[in-house]
Design a protein that fits this description.
Elements lengths: L2 H15 L2 H12 L2 H5 L4 E2 H8 L3 H13 L3 E3 L4 E4 L15 H8 L1 H6 L2 H7 L3 H4 L13 H25 L7 E5 L5 H9 L4 E6 L1 H4 L2 H8 L5 E5 L12 E5 L7 H14 L5 E6 L10 H16 L7 H10 L2 E8 L5 E7 L6 H7 L1
Parallel strand pairs: 4-5, 4-7, 5-6, 7-8
Antiparallel strand pairs: 1-3, 2-3, 8-10, 9-10
Helix pairs in contact: 2-5, 2-6, 6-10, 10-11, 11-13
């Protein structure tokens, strides 16, 4: 046996096993608001300890750990400043990931600690602990809802520009974003297409922050907020419907149910744009493959959803009376699936004219 190769593999494996410390170091830094404090320039350890109410020697250990992650820079003895990478953890950064770091190191951390139980039972952490899948529980917890939706804005912001570059919206006049949360995606699309109008449709707690997003994007006068559940109804009459990172939250039965609601709301020539990660038929070891696998396991521990292959998405759409027309990759991790009404099932327009 080649001892040097075994040692290299051992180091690689240890790095994977021990990766948990980076999540918690970043989470702690965000809870203590260190990136925001350091955003104004170089600070002494003493000043940071006073501002955060921390034990100075222990805070020094955390800061020096952040230095090894290239999130902070240690200038002189016990003086620190934020690195360019660390800037992305500031709350006011244009591409901030602070809320995502708080979510992953907080509520997600507890769920992942029971991954083995989810694998054994096939049920989510929430179901095993007396809760329900879905997001209705956030209505009663404004703080949790605010963090969750801020994190979703951060994640969607990374994808929205790719979607605008990938999908031709030039003929779209009414875009309905189903389950669109705070509206980051539809706002980005509308900002790039001034002739279009939009409807943001989601649960009440999800659309609460949309006005801020619309104002920032300059589309407040062209997008309407509508509250409701897509398992009950979907706003009718759009020519383009968006579903971004919605289907992966649910099991197959619920996916078909919500897709049927979309199908019923769509006029004859309308199209449905589904934006999701697609699982390759055979996973490899690329960064994209790991991202898909991570997200798939996250759906297992958090909800009753999953990431799916192209064939599985096609089957869901077919069961809902929709036909998958094309799949287009974006520059990032996501793919765009475009679907339209199947010819053998009446659309909303055809059902109305027949009555």
């Amino acid at each position: 046996m080649d001892d040097s190769r075994t040692e290299d593999r051992s180091k690689l494996l240890l790095g994977l096993i021990n990766a948990n410390w980076t999540t918690q170091a970043i989470h702690a830094a965000c809870v203590l608001k260190l990136p925001d404090l350091l955003g104004s320039g170089t600070h002494t350890l003493a000043a940071l300890a006073q501002a955060t109410g921390c034990h100075a020697p222990s805070l020094n250990r955390l800061l020096r750990a952040l230095v090894t992650l290239d999130l902070c820079i240690e200038r002189d003895s016990a003086e620190f400043e934020l690195s360019p990478l660390g800037e992305l953890l500031r709350d006011d950064a244009s591409q901030s990931l602070r809320a995502w770091a708080l979510l992953v190191g907080g509520v997600h951390w507890t769920r992942w600690g029971e991954l083995e139980q989810s694998v054994r039972t096939g049920t989510s952490h929430r179901l095993r602990h007396g809760g329900q899948d879905g997001f209705e529980h956030l209505q009663a917890d404004p703080a949790a809802a605010a963090l969750f939706h801020r994190a979703m804005i951060e994640m969607t912001r990374r994808v929205a520009a790719d979607v605008v570059r990938t999908v031709d919206f030039s003929r779209s006049r009414l875009i309905v974003d189903v389950g669109g949360g705070s509206g980051e995606l539809v706002a980005t699309v509308l900002a790039a297409h001034p002739a279009a109008r939009g409807v943001l449709f989601d649960l009440p707690h999800a659309i609460d922050a949309a006005d801020t997003v619309f104002a920032r994007s300059g589309v407040a006068n062209r997008c309407e907020r509508v509250a409701g559940s897509f398992f009950e109804t979907v706003p009718a009459g759009g020519d383009t419907y968006l579903l971004k990172s919605v289907l992966h939250n649910w099991d197959d039965e619920r996916c078909v149910e919500l897709l049927r609601r979309c199908r019923h709301a769509m006029p004859a020539q309308a199209r449905l744009i589904v934006i999701e990660r697609i699982v390759p038929e055979r996973l490899g070891t690329s960064a994209n493959d790991r991202a898909v696998a991570r997200s798939d396991l996250n759906m297992l521990v958090a909800l009753s959803g999953r990431e799916r292959t192209a064939a599985q998405f096609g089957a869901l759409l077919d069961a809902a009376g929709l036909a998958l027309r094309r799949i287009t990759p974006t520059p990032g991790e996501f793919q765009v699936l475009e679907a339209g009404a199947r010819d053998d099932i009446p659309t909303m327009d055809e059902e109305t004219s027949a009555t």
